[in-house]
Amino acid sequence: MQAEIITIGDEILIGQVQDTNSGWISRHLNQIGVRVKQVSSVSDDREHILQALRLASERADIILMTGGLGPTKDDITKKTLAEFFGTGMRRDNEALENVKRIFARYNAPLIDTNIAQADVPENCIVLQNRNGTAPGMWFDHNGKVYVSMPGVPFEMQILMEDEVLPRIKDRFRLPAIIHKTILTAGIGESFLAAKIEAVEDGLPPHIKLAYLPKLGQVRLRLSGTGTNMETLAAEVNAYAGKIVSLVREYVVIEEDIALEKAVLTYMEDRGLNLSVAESCTGGFLSRQITQIPGSSNVFAGGVVSYSNGLKKKVLGVADDTLRTHGAVSEATAREMVEGALHHFETDYAIAITGIAGPAGGSEEKPVGTVWIAVASKTKTTTKLFHFGNRRAQNIERSATNSLVLLLNLLREENK
Question: Cα–Cα distance between 106 and 93 in angstroms, integer?
Fold first, then answer.
């Protein structure tokens, strides 16, 4: 079963709005056994939309569209769909009542353009949108399913979860599908592939292995399709076990979650807390950590100590250390992490100091030089990294590698 996603809107094509809908839809379709064959973006232009629909109908069984359902003149998706299907328009009473409720809630006047939000092509099943004025629409035409949804992400997501995905599962006979993710860190994609080559070569045709690299991390995703969910799950898990046995030292967790979530979960399960001292990462690590719901159960906080003055005043880094070794040095990283551990009174701490770039490097310490330290009350570990000359990547790599070092220390001390 194959699907195509069409996003509609000039704002996407000019980069004013980022298309997050396609990725979200693709993930959720994949989970029920529907493969996305293509993602297309088109402008708010009648002929462009019609052409995209014609092409999609030749490639896919399910065509999902987002955008172009607003009340303004540039939102032409509904009328274009009516033209594509050769049908007229009708006013849906339930959709109109929904529009009235929303405007009454905000004590706002109801004008003709808002009322027209309830107008839909005659041949559609209306998917009521309780979170906005634009209803979704389901079309079953010539053996194909077409779905049109609002472009607002949270409106689209709720419609997908409540209406579209259940309808797709009822409408089509879908295969059983199983995904198993293994998160690794501290090893490059090519080295990882070499270590697990024998297992990969032995996979049966219905189980695929994908490498999903990110700076400092590689996710391995095994995907199996079949007819019996239990049998398939056992088979996929068996191959996952073989992979883990070959690269166990690099495995963070056997779940599809973020590295920072894995570290926080590990610490929370053991009643441990964490503080950080960031220099070249400028709070990036703290932001990554605090994006995780419930992070406050582990993360006490920290300091962004860009200047030497703050390193001395807040973290207790010795003036002599900075004068003799410099801010980017093993000695400074060590004193930063031990200062954070002491002053913030946590079980573990991370410190990062380096040269993110693009300027500030020297022959002795080029751009991309980063010292990372992690510490507990009984042990401090430091490591020197030489990244590239791209600032954003250096910052992200530093944060990722600091979490890997912390996880290694946690596992060493909390077996």
Answer: 20
- The string of DSSP codes covering 121-156 is ETTPEEE--TTSSS-EEEEEETTEEEEEE-SSHHHH
Query: Would you state the pLDDT for residue 71?
Result: 87
How is 6-56 classified by DSSP, letter by letter? EEE-HHHHTTSS---HHHHHHHHHHHTT-EEEEEEEE-S-HHHHHHHHHHH
Quickly list H helices, 187-343.
189-195, 197-201, 229-246, 259-269, 284-290, 308-315, 319-325, 330-343
Residue type at 253?
Answer: I
Contacts of 169 (CB under 8 A, 6+ apart): 32
Name 8's bridge partners: 42
Please tell me whether residue 386 adopts helix, strand or coil conformation.
Answer: strand
Tokens 């045709």 sit on residue: 205
Pairing state between β 274-278 and 299-304: parallel
Give every residue of the chain whose pLDDT is below 50, as ranges. Answer: none
Q: Tens digit of pLDDT for each residue in 19-70?
A: 999 999 999 999 898 999 999 999 999 999 999 999 999 999 999 999 999 8
Query: What is the DSSP pairing of strand 144-149 with strand 217-226?
Result: unpaired
**Three-state SS for 359?**
coil
- Judge if pTM exceeds 0.70: yes
**The pLDDT of residue 247:** 96
Radius of gyration of the chain (CA): 27
